[in-house]
Design goal:
mainly alpha
Length: about 190
């Protein structure tokens, strides 16, 4: 839902916000693919496990940072080209691989979850006003709870994947709906 809402609302914006909304749409697609893989790839063979892990990593280490980055760029009015977004995606891939190979993957994951939560909250609070701000802020708080409390990288509690997935889905649905509402107000 968030992916299609972001993609459809991008068509009526000028180039800068249009690109940001399409990046959010792409990132939501990464997350949806990971969720679909976790439901459908239930086999215990090596290929299924590897594909499931790859899509999960794509959602966590690329999708979520892209959403928070695009929201921050949208809120701050930063103009990023498609090429710049591609370079940022490559940088996210490189950081993941460098941290994984150097043995600090868990610390990187935890720091990334904190950075995503804070930037999502900051962006949503500066992006709009009134009820839209409240609902976008709620999406940020729900996502932050999912990432910091229920995720596999949480140091506060033991991970709860069902609550993590449910909270993240709710945050993304609310985000997609509010970006659509924000678009209808701005056009």
């Amino acid at each position: 839902m968030a992916a299609s809402s972001s993609y459809r609302s991008a068509d009526n914006h000028k180039e800068g916000p249009q690109t940001h909304l399409k990046v959010i749409s792409l990132a939501c697609t990464f997350i949806a693919l990971a969720a679909l893989a976790s439901i459908t790839l239930t086999g215990s063979d090596q290929d299924s496990l590897t594909l499931n892990r790859m899509l999960s990593n794509l959602a966590i280490y690329a999708g979520l940072p892209l959403i928070s980055s695009a929201l921050l760029a949208l809120a701050r009015g930063w103009e990023w080209s498609r090429a710049a977004w591609g370079r940022w995606l490559l940088a996210l891939f490189a950081m993941f691989e460098l941290c994984r190979r150097s043995g600090i993957g868990e610390d990187y994951s935890e720091g990334l979850m904190i950075a995503i939560s804070l930037s999502w909250l900051l962006a949503t609070l500066t992006l709009s006003q009134g009820l839209t701000r409240l609902l976008l802020g709620s999406s940020a708080l729900i996502a932050g709870t999912a990432l910091l409390v229920f995720s596999p990288f949480s140091r506060f509690t033991s991970p709860d994947l069902a609550l993590y997935n449910l909270s993240l889905a709710a945050a993304l649905a609310l985000l997609g709906n509010q970006l659509k509402q924000l678009h209808s107000v701005n056009t």
